[in-house]
């Protein structure tokens, strides 16, 4: 779904004196004080055996654990995370899940998410530098030669495809910076080309992705290939950390607004025969939360209070625009407003609410042309007069 990610002005932000509970630590943070990540070291089967695909909505590592989460998008009190992830079912419209779980411990099972270069380009992550999903210190769950779980793919149609997603459950913007994974080609017959592809969402299809460009606020185009890797030898392994900003033209950061998701596909191809396997392990996503109330400065959501919607932002999408006007007009004079409105409206919706919207019009990046603005104001005034006469 194409929407504009706005540079909104939010109000009501309250900063907590509580220190950050967990972030990616050094040297993996490479000096980034507010770097966060979630990742899978292990992979849960979708069915009863290891050939049933993968369905896993519980990443092992997640640096955003907060025992007292806050904000309109936060999980319920008592413990939660500001980033959630899923593999397979629920991660995209189709939810491709590969072939299943491999428990072979003689390959992969490295100490990093993605690149083994830590603290420098291409910026991999030590697994032990990323706290676990329950807030405990990062721990390696797989060790080569001892314990293992990886995601396997084979040459058999959809079993070469694996989808995964990330969702921002904070009230801040999340700048998604890198995707990390370790990849292995099994043998000479195995698929030896691997692409990382963005999947645009479709609300009607059951999944609405909305990863937006920072330069113009548009969604990344469906099918955008962020990386395309070929393996010259087999068996062989590559540890990959993909910069999403560098994968766009022109290069620009990509962001997730509060409540938004991004969906990706790992697409294997170019095999020599059917049923040959390749594998993925140590899959992670990393980035930084940004405060739209402070010029998109970096912020740690585990150390900050909730940010409420700005004046006139009745649908809490970070902008004041025609969508807010439509909500306002459609509910004019009602004794109650819809429960899903998270803005602090006081029913009945009245001229004070209209003034709030008009006074803050244009706080988003998409500002109406002057002619359209005049038409909108005229329509709003006419509508309010009509409703008052009816009453």
3D structure, described in words:
There is one protein chain. With 391 residues, the protein is mainly β. Strands 1, 2, 6, 9, 11, 13, 15, 16, 18 and 19 form a ten-stranded antiparallel beta sheet that branches. Strands 5-10-17-12-14 form a five-stranded antiparallel beta sheet, with no helix packed on it. The chain starts with 34 loop residues before the first strand and ends with a helix. Strand 18 and strand 19 form a beta hairpin. It has three helices and 19 strands. The longest helix is centred in the C-terminal third of the chain and has 21 residues. It is globular, with a radius of gyration of 23 Å. The N terminus and C terminus are likely disordered.
Integer-rounded radius of gyration? 23 Å
H and E string: EEEEEEEEEEEEEEEEEEEHHH
Task: Compute the number of strand runs.
Answer: 19
Q: Which structural class do you get from the secondary structure elements?
A: mainly beta
Mean pLDDT: 81
Note the gap between the termini.
38 Å
Chain-wise SSE layout:
Blueprint: E1 35-40, E2 61-62, E3 65-66, E4 80-81, E5 83-87, E6 100-102, E7 112-113, E8 125-126, E9 150-154, E10 161-168, E11 173-185, E12 193-199, E13 212-213, E14 225-230, E15 236-243, E16 254-256, E17 261-269, E18 277-291, E19 297-298, H1 322-330, H2 351-359, H3 370-390
Antiparallel strand pairs: 1-2, 1-18, 3-4, 5-10, 6-9, 7-8, 9-18, 10-17, 11-15, 11-16, 11-18, 12-14, 12-17, 13-16, 18-19
Briefly say what this structure is.
By secondary structure, the protein is mainly beta. It has helices at residues 322-330, 351-359, 370-390, and strands at 35-40, 61-62, 65-66, 80-81, 83-87, 100-102, 112-113, 125-126, 150-154, 161-168, 173-185, 193-199, 212-213, 225-230, 236-243, 254-256, 261-269, 277-291, 297-298.
